[in-house]
Amino acid sequence: MARYRNEQASNHETVLAALRGSRKPMTAYDLLARLKTKGITAPTTVYRALDRLIDEGRVHRLESLNAFVVCDCEHSFTTAMFSICNDCGHAEEIADTKLHSDILAIARRLGFKLSHSVVEMHGRCRACAAGTEH
Ligand SMILES: [Zn+2]
Ligand SMILES: [Zn+2]
After folding, report:
1. Torsion angle in degrees (nearest 10) through CA of 34, 38, 41, 44
2. Which among 66, 71, 108, 118 would be 20 to 30 A from 97, CA to CA?
3. What is the whole-number distance in angstroms between the Cα of residue 111 and the centre of ligand 1?
4. Are residues 88 and 114 in the same domain?
């Protein structure tokens, strides 16, 4: 895409690798702190890389946490669903094509042109609910 032409090609890969290495969703500032040693020091660099990764469908933004996670699915559709643990912060992506077709049907009924949707479930993950180490 033209608007990314002047960007160092590897910045978004560096951001992606940092996200991949984290068990929890990361905010832009988490990423900035992590990537300082890799030569990424400007918030705009991180935001631009995140925009690109989101556009490419490789990263999702969790609105409720204002944080980012790597897409775990092979999905090409526009609905992502996450379970987010309030205790340990773990976010797990759930691939659900039925949910996606339901959301599409609702959008169609409303005459709403859907670009993307992210469904966020908050609660406790199985391990935290069971009180086990993870
Ligand atoms: Zn995904
Ligand atoms: Zn948990």
Report:
1. -90
2. 66
3. 25
4. yes
Looking at the fold, whether 91 and 46 belong to one and the same domain comes out as: no
Distance 63 CA to ligand 2 centre (A): 19
- Output the CA 75–ligand 1 centroid distance in Å: 6
Residues, CB-to-ion distance under 5 Å, ligand 1: 71, 73, 80
What's the sign of the alpha-carbon dihedral 24, 71, 9, 2?
negative
In this structure, the answer to whether residues 37 and 86 fall within a common structural domain is: no
Print pLDDT tens along the chain (134 aa). Answer: 445 544 555 899 999 999 999 989 999 999 999 999 888 899 999 999 999 999 888 999 999 999 999 997 876 667 889 999 999 999 999 887 788 889 999 999 999 998 888 899 999 999 999 987 65
Rounded distance from Cα 84 to ligand 1 centre (Å): 14
Please state the domain count of the chain: 2
Given phi > 0 = left and psi -120 to 50 = alpha, else beta, which region is 120?
A: beta
Distance 26 CA to ligand 2 centre (A): 16
